[in-house]
Design a protein that fits this description.
Helices cover about 40% and strands about 20% of the residues. The protein is of the alpha/beta class and about 170 residues long. It has one domain (about 5-120): 3-Layer(aba) Sandwich (Rossmann fold), CATH 3.40.50.620. The radius of gyration is 16 Å and the shape is globular.
């Protein structure tokens, strides 16, 4: 059985993430979506909230997708999951440079696991969670970038923390 891992913070999960999950799942028998913490990021949503969000949004994609939390080196997580590939989405040249470097480092850590890059759908390429949060914090519409229920959650969180520019 071929297992892949698609890691990310998913804060919040976007339509771009969903595109990569759907397409990545076609490449493997099982896709483990790893929701992680990132020490260099300040998440809008807790780990449990992000896990619930991703689980809900992927529920209709079948049982070949598993959503789990992890807080370790990606390659250690991938090995524990029994993965032979890491799925990564690319949006732009800047993504490629970062991801290329990460793939090289990951290969040094574990050369039995390959990194597979999927280009985001052209219509979804500009979407980034960081930008979605920024747009929402300034009162902009985010419904073109995230699933409907996620829009509601982001808007509610912005109202709770107070939006900028007010």
């Amino acid at each position: 059985m071929r297992t892949g891992v698609y890691p990310g913070t998913f804060d919040p999960v976007t339509l771009g993430h969903m595109d990569i999950i759907r397409r990545g799942a076609k490449l493997v028998d099982k896709l483990v979506v790893g929701v992680t913490t990132n020490p260099s990021k300040s998440p809008m949503f807790t780990l449990d909230e992000r896990l619930a969000m991703v689980r809900r949004e992927t529920a209709d994609l079948g049982d070949k997708i598993e959503i789990v939390a992890f807080d370790s080196l990606l390659m250690d997580f991938a090995e524990r999951a029994g993965a032979s590939i890491i799925v990564r989405g690319l949006r732009a040249v800047a993504d490629f440079e970062y991801e290329y470097q990460m793939a090289g480092m990951n290969q040094q850590l574990n050369n039995r696991i390959e990194t597979v890059f999927l280009m985001a759908d052209v219509a979804l390429q500009p979407i980034a969670s960081r930008l979605v949060k920024e747009i929402a914090l300034y009162g902009g519409a985010i419904d073109r970038f995230v699933p409907t229920r996620v829009v509601q959650e982001v808007v509610a969180r912005v109202e709770k923390i107070g939006k900028k520019g007010s």
